[in-house]
Amino acid sequence: MNLLFNDIDELRKHISFLYATAEFYSLRSDLLLATEDLISVVGEDIYTRVQNAYENDFTDDLSKELISLFQYPIAMLGYLYYVQNADISHEDSGRKVKTDKDSESMPWEWQVIRDNEAIRNKGNRGIDRLITFLDKHIDELPEWKDCEQRKDTNSLFVKSAKEFDQIVPIDGSRVFYLRVLPFIRKEDKELRNYLGTDRYSVLKNSMRNDSITEEQSEIIGLCREIIPLRVMATAVRRLAIQVLPESVVMRFDADRSTMKASTPVSAEMIASVEKSYLTEADQAITRLQQFLTKQKPENNSDVLYSVDYSREKFFTV
After folding, report:
1. Contact predicate 168/117, CB 8 Å
2. How far apart are CA 107 and CA 122, in angstroms?
3. More confident position, 249 or 47
4. Contacts for 137 with CB less than 8 Å, ≥ 6 apart
5. What is the DSSP string of 253-288?
6. What is this structure's pTM?
7. Based on the number of CB atoms within 10 Å of its own CB, is 296 exposed (0-12), middle (13-18) or buried (19 or more)?
8. pLDDT tens across 205-239, in order?
9. Residue 80 and residue 88: Cα distance in Å, rounded?
10. What is the dihedral of CA 113, 41, 82, 66, to 10 degrees?
């Protein structure tokens, strides 16, 4: 895998605050890590196309825009990885901090954390802009249209970040939606237990064929309320807090917006947030089941399925 940068000047086009003495070779490894992160979100095929356009100096408007949109988040996130170690020098006698005490001083830890979050947010916003552009030009980009990261999302009950955001605010983040897409697929399949196999299959066919009836629309809407809540319960337990949308992080602790922002999130707080999502999901499941009991069964063999949450593996407070 090759980078989409040849020198430090290309990097400076995207990082205006990059210091004058920065050297490209020092950041190269971190840029590679950031590139791998981006590939995990958008897929290797589309990156290969952009890399080929970059190395062969393609000058068409689509290629130039793609190269720039790929470069920005890689530059931001790569710099973030680099700077986290650059504050401290590693020497034979151990790690050192060097400052000119007359004209500079080390920032407080909360200031460093806040700056890291700002850079990370810019990188993630850059990925969102990239995904928006890819979706806009999807017919011109088969590498994106057919990639595993987004394939068949139209057949999901929650098929976009916008629909997810309507239930659980995630700042409209497409990058977060793609990160939790495996969780979304899992919860989508779990709804078969509540809908029954036949009704689930009929609903999916109607969604694919864009032939949804009024009753089916009501059921889809109820299903759409359940999935984001259960996905977020999984996300807060499994994912690092740094990759969660800011609107979700704010649920953890008001102190994270103050000088106490460096305080790690406690297991009790994670459990509390997780439980709140699961409680809301249970209520949404109950609404779905109540609606289904009023409808004519599509197959007498389908029995509504209920979950004994006392056997579920999640923290209690």
Report:
1. no
2. 21
3. 47
4. 62
5. -GGGGTGGGGSPPPHHHHHHHHHHHHHHHHHHHHHH
6. 0.70
7. exposed
8. 888 888 889 999 999 999 999 999 999 999 999 98
9. 14
10. -120
- Residues 187-212: tens digit of each pLDDT: 999 999 999 999 999 999 888 888 88
pLDDT digit string, tens, across residues 146-155: 887 777 677 8
**Residues 96/86, Cβ–Cβ less than 8 Å:** no
DSSP string, 135-149: HHTGGG-HHHHT-TT
Q: Which whole-number Å values give the CA distances from 272 to 171, 232, 252, 265, 315, in the listed order?
A: 22, 12, 9, 11, 8
DSSP structural state of residue 168 = S
Structure tokens at 39: 């590939």
Residues whose CB falls within 8 Å of the CB of residue 102, separated by 6 or more in sequence, listed in order = none
Distance separating alpha carbons of residues 59 and 257, to the nearest angstrom = 44
